[in-house]
Structure formats: structure tokens, C-alpha cells
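Summary for the steering committee. The consortium agreed at its last meeting that each partner would contribute one worked example illustrating the joint modelling workflow. Our contribution is presented below. We chose a case with several input lines so that the handling of multiple components could be demonstrated. No manual editing was applied between input and output; the record is shown as generated.
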Amino acid sequence: MKDYNQKSEILIDTAEWILEEFGSAAAFDVFVKDEDPEAVRETLLEVRGVGPKTADCVLLFAGGRVGVFPVDTHVHRIYRRLGIAPADADHEAVREVLEREVPAAKCGFGHTATIQFGRDYCTARKPACLEDPDACPMGDLCDQIGVYPATGEVVDPADAVN
Ligand code: SF4
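What follows is the complete predicted structure of the assembly.
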């Protein structure tokens, strides 16, 4: 319950901040859609409760900005397991790799599809390949960093020895 209360407080504070800073929701929308994306990102990050993932989601979904690939816990885990981002990369470093490698127009789809993939296949504790090497559609392309089917062990890629 506390969590819900806290979230609603943050939402109310954010709405008040928008009105104070921009005068109206419409003016805020224009700012998010038209200003330099880095400036929007920096401004949003000053708001209590807004972290990099939320700021990037606002840029992508509300601002319609292509080339922004928000990194949540699924995205952070999966691209390091696959070997596409360095095993010890933090969220920002994974974002840099993805925004460099993924065509700008595909970043939004990539973000949502990766989250779904993380729920359906490459889960945090029990990735599909752990018991069946053919159970994951990405099996042929994946380095399985931190995933050890032989022992059934799964660790964060940053702690992997392979
Ligand atoms: S092969 Fe395993 S570790 Fe690699 S993406 Fe699929 S489920 Fe994840």
C-alpha cells in the first residue's frame, strides 16, 4: 500500500512540476517532442522518481523520438547474456551499445519486444535454454554469458567466468 501511496505522491508532484515549469500539459508535450533529446533527458532526470529508463520511455513513447532504446532490467540482462553488450556494462553502457547498433526506427520495437522476450524466454532465474538447448529462438546466436546448462546455475553476466 505504501508503494502505491508513494507512487501517487510522485505523480501528483510531477504534474505540479509540469504546470509550474511549463504552464500546461500541452506546453510540456511540445518540450518533450521538439527540444533537443539530451536537454529533455537531463530535465526529466531532475524530477523526483524519474530515472534513466523512465526518461527514455518518455522520449520514446510520448516524444515519438526514434533512436532511443530504454534499458530496463530485462534489456540490461538479455543483451549482456547474448554477448552483444560487455558482461560488466551498466544500464547506460548497454543503452549506448544498443543505440549505436540498432537502426533508430527499430529501437522502440526492440525495447518492447525484448521485455516480452525476457518474460517468455530469457527470464532472470530460469532462462529457457537452461533445461532445453532448443527452447530459445535466440539459442544459435547467444553466448549464454552467466548461464550454465551443465550445472543449472545462473549468475549475473558481470559475475560470469565464461
Ligand atoms: S539462449 Fe538462454 S541465455 Fe540466451 S537468450 Fe535464450 S534463454 Fe537467454
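Helices lie at 2-22, 25-34, 37-45, 52-62, 73-82, 91-101, 107-120. The chain has a mean pLDDT of 95.
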